[in-house]
Amino acid sequence: MEISDLTIEKFHEGLVRKEFSAFEITEKFFGHIEEMDGKINAFLRITKDLALSEASRIDVELAEGKDLGLLAGVPIALKDNMMVEGEVTTAASKILESYRASYDATVVSKLKEAGAVILGKTNLDEFAMGSSTENSGFKTTKNPYDTDRVPGGSSGGSAAAVASGMALAALGSDTGGSIRQPAGFCGVAGLKPTYGAVSRYGLIAMASSLDQIGSFGKTVRDAAILFKEIAGRDEMDSTSISLPQGYGDEILNPKLEDIKKLKIGIPKEYFIDGLSSEVKKAIDLAMAKLKSLGLEIKEISLPHTKYALSAYYIIMPAEVSANLARFDGIRYSRIEEGVKSERTALWDIYFNQKGRGFGSETQRRIILGNFVLSSGYYDAYYSKAQKVRHLIKQDFESVFNPSAGGNCRWDSSL
Amino acid sequence: MGELNKKTLEYLAGLGKLDIKKGTEEKLLHDLGEILSRFEELKEVDTENVESMAGGVTGINVFRDDESVKINNRGKTKARITDAFPEKQDGLLKVPAIFE
Question: Are A211 and A127 in contact (CB under 8 A)?
């Protein structure tokens, strides 16, 4: 069995038919990582002991005649901002270089329960801030299709690992495109689920009102299988929501007849100068395909789209500056001591840790966040952005939920 | 709107317990200035009578009964958390003297 031919379901079929063992496949993946990752740098660390012991456990369960779920034995990679108990978890920041996670993130306990085999932790832009995975405190990940190019980011390590066949599927996190964009760059399927659909307990926070964990797969179906496993309400994350009953079945077995009744909205504000002709062509092709399947395509308007980037670039660093304050060298790991100054010993620790531990982009965003939140500027920036955010939300409500009181803005058919 | 100068920059960095590296002030001021000038476009938007939106999607309060809840593996998690403390004594977090 060539591991490059596998999808999650093919792996599952082969495993239960005993064409191969989980242990054997896991070893093959590690062999492939050893061969490939020197060029790609998708992984920050592999978790070989954890993976092989889990794979053996799955093989024993199968031998005992137990029913195995779809994810049992599936070799998966995790972005290194998700905590795996006892394993080093850095968010690609030097400030957490030697930090070992105290507990499993909820997504990790769910994957462990499902019997998934965690191969290792993948590279990212430091604290998930960036779009190229060049901003990591440790290494630069390359695009497996052309190592002169970037894999996108910040979940570039996870995207590259799946694209190069070094993991069958992976988890990433997405705040402002960090799953969707690297998935696009690496030619794999990537999903940012609806905010609240997946618990963030145990995810190192970047911008909490936007962060969401999601899945990467070689196929849309693989990404859906993984999403179904990690989705749902979690008592440990109050922003997580219960999924509607039967929702999971719908993900994996969509009713195509119902889908044909959908109207697809094409926001005219998304087709502006600067859209590359290749991307435009791909969207046109996708629209033609949907039309040929019987779906209706309508031009819609989301008038505040233009302001989304500015609003995002105020709200995100504001939340970053608050979330990253906790990395002070006191509560978590401490990197080597720096020079003593005329400050107190406690202040020396703070300044040395943050100065040496945070990369320049991280420091820049903390400073920007402090600015938009500071007295005198709060109303003009932070508060304004929060209001614009509300208007952007209302744009969507008026298009997608006209019964809730909004004006339907559907225009002419394309 | 943003009057960013070296003094404000130092103040903002200090709030985040950051020292600005020597020789990087000018570039940082320039970059931040560029970003702030982009934000000017938000002035065009009429946000009178628009409520702030602070959270993600639902914006509902989540309550639970005021009772202690058993956390799985609590003892183990606690031990791992205290193990991660850079300096500790008898399971407590050790902090250097604040007054000297």
Answer: no
Q: Which residue of B has its CA nearest to A328?
A: B17
Average pLDDT estimate for A342-369: 91
Shortest CA gap B90–chain A (Å): 15
Active site residue A121: no
Q: How far apart are CA B60 and CA A239, in angstroms?
A: 9
So what's the pLDDT on residue A411?
A: 32
Could you tell me the CA-to-CA distances from A31 to A168, A219, A295, A385, B86 in Å, in that order? 14, 23, 45, 49, 36
Domain boundaries, chain A: 3-254, 306-388
What integer is the mean pLDDT of A390-396? 94
Dihedral of alpha carbons A321, A324, A328, A334, sign: negative
Strands (E), A275-343: 296-300
Q: Quick check: A198 and A230 in contact, CB under 8 A?
A: yes
| Nearest CA among A391, A407, A390 for reference residue A399 | A407
Mind listing the pLDDT tens digit for each residue in A279-336?
A: 999 999 999 999 999 999 999 999 999 999 999 999 999 999 999 999 998 888 888 7
Q: Which of B52, B87, B95, B98 to mutate to test the interface with A (most CBs of A within 10 A)?
A: B52
> What is residue A342's predicted lDDT score, i.e. its pLDDT?
78
B16 vs A366: CB contact, 8 Å cut-off?
yes
pLDDT, tens digit (0-9, with 9 covering 90-100), for A261-272: 889 999 999 998
Inter-chain residue contact B97 with A325, CB threshold 8 Å:
no
In the structure encoding, which two tokens stand for residue A281, read together?
């062509």
Residue A270 near residue A233 (C-beta atoms within 8 A): no
Q: How many CB pairs under 8 A join A and B?
A: 152
Residue of A215, A288, A295, A214 lying closest to A254 (CA atoms): A295
Which position among A109, A158, A178, A240 bears the catalytic label? A178
Per CATH, the number for A3-254 is 3.90.1300.10
**Which pTM was predicted?**
0.94
Cβ-Cβ contacts under 8 Å, A334 against chain B? 86-87
Would the pLDDT of B85 be above 80?
A: yes
